[in-house]
Specification:
It is built from three helices and 22 strands. The protein is mainly beta and 349 residues long. It folds into two domains: 268 residues, Methylamine Dehydrogenase, Chain H, CATH 2.130.10.30; 43 residues, no CATH class. A hairpin with a 5-residue loop joins strand 4 and strand 5. The longest helix is centred in the C-terminal third of the chain and has 13 residues.
Length: 349
């Protein structure tokens, strides 16, 4: 049954007590993903091997391998880890559910069927980005329009968009002209978007964040407990939120976090190309290119030396060579060669 606004608010209020937060999915280069923060359900134990896309959900995480197959880890409640077969290009994760885009541009979803996200997936059309919230999911079509489904789906705004992010019971989208649109529950003022133009967006439990075109950060919604004061600077390129924290990626690859001083997950030192946050954990992909095994910087970046480097690591039993992320013996096998060739063919961004 379709939820009315009152029944959605009632259900959301009780489920929000669980500390849910939707993810900010990440995609781009092929690389190694680090995890940081809470690991109560194994959501921060990233399987070995590289990924091409990934997302942090409430208490689980999901990633796309270089060959397009899916892997999920963390809390298995309500089927959150039961990934579908096939090849995919993008993923998103929410409360006990995950969503993904297949190579042909169609949508897939799995996990908790209670709120209809896995059972009412739109058919037809092609999509480029997808994310999940508490009771709903939103996807961006290739023509820039939006669609939403699930028990708590609100009507989506019209127009052309380049990005979308789901909070618990609200959503935020970035228009092609750089302005913002928000819809859903407005209990905490998440629909009161700031004026101006922006380059990136992110959401938390009941919060919203954006990176202005000048590289500075802005936060609104239920921004209390330190969330109201994002880091100062004009060098931010991405932002994402958690239940009581937020994270922003600088153009030098470092990650800044802020929020409640008692529950801020701290990312490991290093430089990263992208990131995604869950309820109390984060994922981030290391800068660099997985196929660039010898880490050369002079063009051409990818050469025969990278194949030799990979072979040497394979012979030495280095975990780097476990390209397909397999856990069953033998861990290193011919599939890793195929995986590396695919990563090499994909090139470096």
């Amino acid at each position: 049954m379709k939820a009315t606004r009152s029944t959605w608010s009632s259900a959301a209020a009780s489920l929000l007590m669980l500390g849910f937060l939707a993810s900010a999915p990440a995609a781009g280069q092929i690389g190694i993903v680090d995890a940081w923060g809470n690991n109560s359900f194994g959501q921060s134990i990233v399987p070995a091997g590289p990924f091409r896309a990934y997302a942090a959900g409430d208490q689980h995480s999901v990633g796309v391998r270089p060959d397009g197959t899916l892997v999920a880890w963390g809390n298995s409640e309500r089927g959150a880890l039961n990934v579908p077969a096939g090849r995919f290009i993008a993923v998103g994760a929410g409360y006990q559910v995950s969503v993904a885009i297949r190579e042909d541009g169609s949508l897939a979803a799995w996990g908790n069927p209670t709120y209809q996200v896995p059972t009412t997936v739109p058919t037809g059309g092609t999509y480029t980005m997808v994310d999940a919230g508490l009771l709903f999911a939103v996807a961006l079509r290739s023509d820039g329009s939006l669609t939403s489904w699930g028990w708590g789906a609100y009507p989506v705004p019209q127009g052309e968009f380049t990005a979308v992010s789901c909070g618990a019971v609200h959503a935020l989208a970035l228009r092609t002209d750089g302005t913002l649109a928000a819809w859903g529950d407005n209990q905490f003022g998440n629909l009161d978007v700031p004026a101006g133009t922006f380059r990136a967006i992110g959401t938390g439990l009941s919060t919203s964040f954006a990176v202005r075109t000048d590289g500075s950060l802005v936060a609104w919604g239920n921004v209390t407990g330190g969330l109201e004061t994002p880091p100062v600077g004009n060098n931010f390129v991405a932002v994402s939120g958690g239940s009581s924290f937020a994270a922003a990626l600088r153009d030098d690859g470092t990650i800044a976090t802020w929020g409640s001083t008692t529950s801020i997950p701290i990312p490991p030192p290093g430089r990263y190309a992208s990131m995604s946050t869950g309820q109390a954990h984060g994922l981030s992909m290391k800068r660099g290119c997985y196929a660039n095994c010898d880490t050369s910087s002079a063009p051409p970046t990818l050469t025969v030396n990278d194949f030799i480097c990979f072979l040497n690591k394979f012979a030495a039993g280095d975990t780097y060579a476990n390209c397909d992320g397999s856990a069953l013996p033998p861990v290193l096998n011919v599939n890793d060669f195929v995986c590396y060739v695919n990563a090499y063919a994909a090139g470096c961004p």
